């Protein structure tokens, strides 16, 4: 059963703290993505990873960085989180950069 | 205009009714995905289409790349169909491929 997992599912942090969101997939997909979703909006692309150590900025990369050291794991890092980074974050993976499979999301609150 | 425009923004149906949702694209898209976001925030993939029409139970989706639109038709609406429906267009294949999401249609099904 194809699966994308995200940890943690819920996180509360204070402004200025560092945040690490983890994503895993068991499908050996090369390409992985990080999105954020804000109320009333669709998902916005933060970063794409084409494979290990091959990452590219999406539409809204400012304030974020990513790490991909193994094909099955893709991390999103917020160094010194800001209150406007409160959002729901979704990870996705894709075999052929066409159809994407999404994780359950992480709800991040920055106080 | 918006690269992906979804209509209507919100829709209210009684159980048993039929209705359709539409996405218009400002540019030619290679493919489209439709998602339902349930009350828990989970994104459920409904369809992936590169062209033509697909059906799954009470749902049917059509994608016309040349005319730059996609539709999702819901037949015999049920309470569990409530949620927000997103379409997302894939702009191209290869290394620049990315999904662009619409803002969603919030569907409420009432008994």
Q: In short, what is this structure?
A:
Chain A is mostly beta strands. Chain A has no helices and 11 strands. Chain B has strands at about 5, 10-15, 20-25, 30-35, 45-50, 50-55, 60-65, 70-75, 85-90, 100, 105-110.
Task: Explain what the structure shows.
Chain A has strands spanning 4-7, 10-13, 19-25, 31-37, 43-51, 54-57, 65-70, 73-78, 87-94, 101-102, 106-110. Chain A has 111 residues and is mainly β. Chain A has one domain (4-110): Immunoglobulin-like (Sandwich), CATH 2.60.40. Chain A is globular and about 35 Å long. The relative contact order of chain A is 0.33. The mean pLDDT of chain A is 94. With 111 residues, chain B is mainly beta. The model of chain B has no long low-confidence stretch (mean pLDDT 93). Chains A and B meet through strand 5 and strand 10 of A and strand 4, strand 5 and strand 9 of B.
Enter the CATH topology name of chain B: Immunoglobulin-like
State the CATH topology of chain A. Immunoglobulin-like
At CATH level 2, the architecture of chain A is: Sandwich
Largest interface: A-B, 21 and 24 residues
How many DSSP-defined strands of chain B?
Answer: 11
H/E element string of chain B?
EEEEEEEEEEE
Please count the helical segments of chain A. Answer: 0
Rounded to an integer in angstroms, the radius of gyration calculated over CA atoms of chain A is: 13 Å
H and E order of chain A: EEEEEEEEEEE
Going by CATH, what is the homologous superfamily of chain B?
Answer: Immunoglobulins
Q: How widely separated are the two ends of chain A?
A: 37 Å
Shape by Cα distribution of chain A: globular
CATH superfamily of chain A: Immunoglobulins
User: How would you classify the quaternary structure?
Assistant: heterodimer
Number of domains of chain A: 1
Overall mean pLDDT of chain B: 93
CATH architecture assignment name of chain B: Sandwich
Q: What are the segments of chain B in which pLDDT stays under 50 over at least 5 consecutive residues? A: none
The structural class of chain A is mainly beta
